[in-house]
C-alpha cells in the first residue's frame, strides 16, 4: 500500500481528545464548586456583604449565547430536555443547518460521530445518491426516516432513500438505538425525524402580521446554487389566529470535484482499466442536478390550547448523468454514449391536531392523518455500434419504483399520582397502509435495420405488494422519590401483513412462490434516570426492535442464466434487536456532558445475494445468525465566557457477526472506530459576528472481516471554518471553508470496500475506490435576508 493509505492519526487523535476532555471536565468541576460550595460564616458585616457579592458573581448566569440542552419531541413523543431522556438523542437545529448552509442528507450528518451516510457512485447507480443513514451499524432500511412523523420510502437495490431536503427544517432529531415501541417496527438502529418549520417560527413579535426570509448560497464543491424564499402570514387577528406558511427552495448543482483523487483503480495503485475515451477513475461522470422543495402550512388555533394544522409538501430532484465511464470497445460492440436520468418525487398532505384537553383523565390528544405518494423513476438511453456489422443500436430502459403511504397516528396523554409516585402515560394507535410497485422495461432498437424488441420484469425485479401495519403502544413515565428517579416502561404490539401482487412478466420459481406473510410481535422497552447528586445523573435503558422483510427481500425474482438467477426466499424471518445502554450525565450552569455505553444484539440480519446451497448460479436473500455491535458515545459543551464556548461529541464502536449458528465469528465492517468532533465558537453580538472552528478526528480502521479483501481506511484530521456576519439587522453574510488543510482521506464508512482479489476488473471499472475519496478543500458563501 502507498503511504497515503497507511498513515494514521492515532497519537494526535488521542491527545486532542484527552485535552478536550480534561478542559471540559476541569471547567465543569469549577462550575460545580461555584454552585455547591457554601461560604464560611463571617462576623464582620462588610466582609459578609463583599463575600455575598463575590459568591453571586461566581454563580450568576453568564447569558450564554448557546442553548446546551434543547428539547426533543421524538425520544418520548413528548417535549423533554435531551438530558432528561434515557438514551442518546441529538437535535440538529435550524440554526445549525443555516450556519453550515446544509441542504443535503450527507451534509446534515457530517458532525455526528457514529452516523454514516454511504456514498453510492457505482456504474449501476451513478447518481451520487446517499444509500441511507446508518446508526450504530444498522443502515439501509433498518433506520426509520420520517418527516413530521410520516414515513419515507424504503430503499431497494441500486436505488436511494435520499428524498428529503433540509432547507425548511426546524430541527433534525436522531434517536440512537431501537425505537420500535414509540415509532414502529422499522427503527432497529434508530430513528431520524425531520421536523419542518411552522409560521410561528418566523414571527418575532406577537402582533406581527407578515414575516419571513430569503437566502441564497453557493458551493465551490459542486458549483451549486441554492435559493430559498419563505413567507409567514397571520391571516386573522385576535385570540384565535389563522396563520399560513409558504416556503420554496431551488437547488442547481453539478458533479462534485474530487480534487484529491488519483486516477487509479485500487489502493495499491493499479492502473485505471477504463477506456481512454471514458471518464477517468478519479472523476465523476458529468452530472446536472435540479431540485425543488415546496412547503405550505395552514395553522388555526380555535383556542389557546388547541391547534389544527394542514400541511402540504412537494419535493422533486432530477439528476441527469452522461455516463461516459461506461464507454468501451469489446469484441461485439463499441459503446459511444449512455445518458441516464433519475427523477425523485415525494408528496405529502397531512392534517393534525394538538389539543391540551385538560380533562381529569386526559391531558392531551394528538392525531395525524397523512397521504404521501413517493416515487423514483430511472430512464436510460445507451448507444452502441455493433461489431462487425457496424449497426447502430439503442438500448432504452425504464424503471419505476414507488411507495404510497396512508397513515393514521393517534396519541393520548394522561397523568395521575399513585401514592408518592407520579405517572405520565403516553399511549395510542399507529398504523399505515402502503402500496409498493416496481416496473422495469427494456427496449432494444436496431436503428440501422429498424427492428425492435421489448422485455419487461428485468433488473432486480420483485412483485408488487400491499403492506398493512396496525400497532398499539403505551409508555409510562413514573416519577419516584420526589422525581429524583424516573422509570419509563413501554410496550408495543405490532401487527404486520404483506400481500404480494405479481405483475406482468414476474417469474414464478417452483417452491418459492410469492405468498402472503403476516406477523404479530410484542416489543418492550425500559428506561431509568436517577439524579445521583446535584448536577449528576445516571441512566440505563433496554429496548427491543423488530423489522419485517421488505417486498424486494421476499419476492425478488430474475432469471439471468447462464450467468445467475435471483431466487425469492418467502421463508425469511423478521430481523430483531435487543439493545442495552447505560450512561452518566452532568448538567451545569455553563455546560453539560454525557457519556454512555451501548450493546446491540441483532438477530436474523437479512443479507442480499447469498448463494443458494447446492447451486453455482442461484442467489437469494438469507438471514444471518447474528450481528453484535457495542461502543461508547460521548458529548459535551461548555460556555467559557459570554463570547466563547466549546463542544465535542465522540463515538467508538466495534462489532462482530456470525453467518450461521456454529460458524466462525468474524469482524462486522459496519461498526466505525473512534470519531471525535470538537468545535470552538466565538460570537460577538455587538458586531453580529459568529466564528466557529470545527475539527473532525477519525481513528484508523484496524479491524475488518478480511484484511486481504476488505479496505481499512486510515485515520485523518480535518478542519472546517464556519463564519457569519450580520451586517445590519436582517442582513447576514455567511462564508464557510471545509477541509482547510486539504487533507486526502477516506471516510470510515468505506471499511470493507472490495480490494485484493475482490476488486475484480468489473469493480475497478464500474466502482473504483477513488470515487469514495473525501472531498478536498472547498468553500460556501451565502446571503440571508430576514424580515
From TrEMBL:
One of its GO terms (molecular function) is heme transmembrane transporter activity. Residues 82-191 form the TonB-dependent receptor plug domain. The keyword Mitochondrion does not apply. Residues 39-61, 256-277 are annotated as: Disordered. CDD domains: ligand_gated_channel (cd01347). This is TonB-dependent receptor plug. Belongs to the TonB-dependent receptor family. PANTHER family: HEMOGLOBIN AND HEMOGLOBIN-HAPTOGLOBIN-BINDING PROTEIN 1-RELATED, TONB-DEPENDENT OUTER MEMBRANE RECEPTOR.
Amino acid at each position: 500500500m502507498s503511504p497515503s493509505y497507511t498513515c494514521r492519526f492515532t497519537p494526535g487523535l488521542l491527545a486532542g481528545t484527552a485535552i478536550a476532555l480534561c478542559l471540559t471536565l476541569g471547567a465543569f468541576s469549577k462550575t460545580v464548586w461555584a454552585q455547591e460550595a457554601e461560604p464560611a460564616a463571617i462576623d464582620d458585616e462588610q466582609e459578609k456583604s463583599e463575600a455575598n457579592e463575590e459568591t453571586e458573581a461566581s454563580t450568576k448566569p453568564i447569558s450564554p449565547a448557546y442553548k446546551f440542552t434543547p428539547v426533543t419531541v421524538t425520544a418520548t413523543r413528548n417535549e423533554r430536555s435531551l438530558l432528561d431522556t434515557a438514551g442518546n438523542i441529538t437535535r440538529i437545529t435550524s440554526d445549525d443547518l443555516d450556519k453550515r448552509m446544509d441542504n443535503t442528507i450527507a451534509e446534515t450528518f457530517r458532525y455526528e460521530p457514529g452516523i454514516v451516510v454511504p456514498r453510492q457512485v457505482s456504474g449501476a447507480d451513478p447518481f451520487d445518491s446517499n444509500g441511507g443513514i446508518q446508526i450504530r451499524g444498522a443502515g439501509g432500511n433498518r433506520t426509520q426516516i420520517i418527516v413530521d412523523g410520516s414515513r419515507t420510502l424504503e430503499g431497494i437495490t441500486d436505488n436511494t432513500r435520499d428524498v428529503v431536503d433540509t432547507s425548511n427544517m426546524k430541527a433534525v432529531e436522531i434517536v440512537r438505538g431501537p425505537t420500535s415501541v414509540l415509532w414502529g417496527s422499522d427503527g432497529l438502529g434508530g430513528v431520524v425525524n425531520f421536523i419542518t418549520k411552522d409560521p410561528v417560527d418566523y414571527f418575532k413579535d406577537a402582533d406581527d402580521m407578515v414575516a419571513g426570509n430569503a437566502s441564497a448560497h453557493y458551493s465551490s464543491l459542486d458549483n451549486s446554487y441554492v435559493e430559498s424564499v419563505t413567507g409567514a402570514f397571520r391571516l386573522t387577528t385576535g385570540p384565535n389566529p389563522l396563520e399560513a406558511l409558504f416556503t420554496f427552495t431551488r437547488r442547481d448543482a453539478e458533479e462534485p470535484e474530487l480534487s484529491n483523487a488519483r486516477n487509479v483503480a485500487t489502493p495499491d495503485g493499479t492502473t485505471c482499466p477504463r477506456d481512454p475515451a471514458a471518464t477517468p477513475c478519479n472523476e465523476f461522470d458529468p452530472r446536472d442536478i435540479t431540485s425543488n422543495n415546496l412547503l405550505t402550512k395552514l395553522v388555526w388555533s380555535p383556542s389557546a390550547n388547541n391547534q389544527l394544522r394542514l400541511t402540504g409538501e412537494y419535493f422533486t430532484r432530477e439528476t441527469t448523468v452522461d455516463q461516459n465511464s461506461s464507454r468501451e470497445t469489446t469484441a461485439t460492440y463499441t459503446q459511444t454514449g449512455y445518458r441516464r436520468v433519475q427523477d425523485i418525487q415525494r408528496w405529502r398532505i397531512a392534517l393534525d391536531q394538538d389539543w391540551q384537553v385538560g380533562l381529569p383523565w386526559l391531558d392531551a390528544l394528538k392525531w395525524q392523518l397523512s397521504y404521501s405518494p413517493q416515487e423514483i423513476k430511472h430512464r436510460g438511453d445507451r448507444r452502441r455500434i455493433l461489431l462487425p456489422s457496424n449497426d447502430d443500436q439503442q438500448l432504452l430502459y425504464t424503471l419505476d419504483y414507488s411507495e404510497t403511504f396512508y397513515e393514521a397516528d393517534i396519541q393520548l396523554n394522561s397523568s395521575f399520582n399513585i401514592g408518592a409516585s407520579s405517572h405520565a402515560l403516553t399511549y395510542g394507535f399507529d398504523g399505515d397502509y402502503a402500496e409498493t410497485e416496481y416496473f422495469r422495461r427494456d427496449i432494444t432498437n436496431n436503428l440501422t435495420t429498424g427492428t425492435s424488441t421489448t422485455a419487461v420484469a428485468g433488473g432486480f425485479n420483485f412483485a408488487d405488494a400491499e403492506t398493512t401495519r396496525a400497532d398499539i403502544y403505551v409508555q409510562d413515565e413514573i416519577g419516584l422519590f420526589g422525581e429524583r428517579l424516573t422509570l419509563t416502561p413501554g410496550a408495543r404490539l405490532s401487527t404486520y401483513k404483506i400481500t404480494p401482487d405479481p405483475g406482468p412478466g414476474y417469474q414464478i420459481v417452483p417452491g418459492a412462490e410469492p405468498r402472503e406473510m403476516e406477523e404479530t410481535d410484542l416489543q418492550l422497552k425500559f428506561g431509568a434516570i436517577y439524579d445521583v447528586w446535584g448536577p449528576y445523573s445516571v441512566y440505563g435503558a433496554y429496548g427491543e426492535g423488530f423489522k419485517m422483510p421488505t417486498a424486494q427481500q421476499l419476492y425478488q425474482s430474475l432469471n439471468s442464466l447462464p450467468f445467475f438467477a435471483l431466487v425469492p426466499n418467502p421463508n425469511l424471518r423478521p430481523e430483531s434487536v435487543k439493545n442495552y445502554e447505560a450512561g452518566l450525565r452532568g448538567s451545569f450552569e455553563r455546560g453539560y456532558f454525557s457519556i454512555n455505553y451501548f450493546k446491540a444484539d441483532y438477530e436474523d440480519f437479512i443479507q442480499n445475494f447469498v448463494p443458494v446451497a447446492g447451486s453455482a448460479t442461484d442467489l437469494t436473500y438469507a438471514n444471518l445468525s447474528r450481528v453484535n455491535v457495542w461502543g461508547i458515545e460521548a458529548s459535551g459543551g461548555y460556555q467559557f465566557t459570554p463570547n466563547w464556548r466549546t463542544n465535542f461529541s465522540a463515538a467508538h464502536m466495534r462489532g462482530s457477526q456470525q453467518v450461521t449458528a456454529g460458524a466462525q465469528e468474524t469482524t462486522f465492517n459496519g461498526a466505525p472506530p473512534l470519531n471525535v468532533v470538537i468545535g470552538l465558537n466565538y460570537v460577538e453580538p455587538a458586531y453580529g459576528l459568529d466564528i466557529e472552528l470545527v475539527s473532525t478526528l477519525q481513528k484508523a480502521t484496524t479491524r475488518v472481516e478480511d484484511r486481504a479483501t476488505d479496505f481499512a481506511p486510515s485515520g485523518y484530521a480535518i478542519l472546517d471554518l464556519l463564519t457569519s456576519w450580520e451586517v445590519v439587522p436582517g442582513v447576514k453574510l455567511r462564508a464557510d471553508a471545509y477541509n482547510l488543510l486539504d487533507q486526502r482521506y477516506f471516510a470510515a464508512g468505506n471499511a470493507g470496500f472490495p480490494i485484493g482479489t475482490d476488486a475484480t476488473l468489473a469493480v475497478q471499472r464500474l466502482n473504483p475506490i477513488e470515487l469514495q475519496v473525501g472531498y478536498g478543500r472547498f468553500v460556501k458563501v451565502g446571503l440571508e435576508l430576514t424580515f
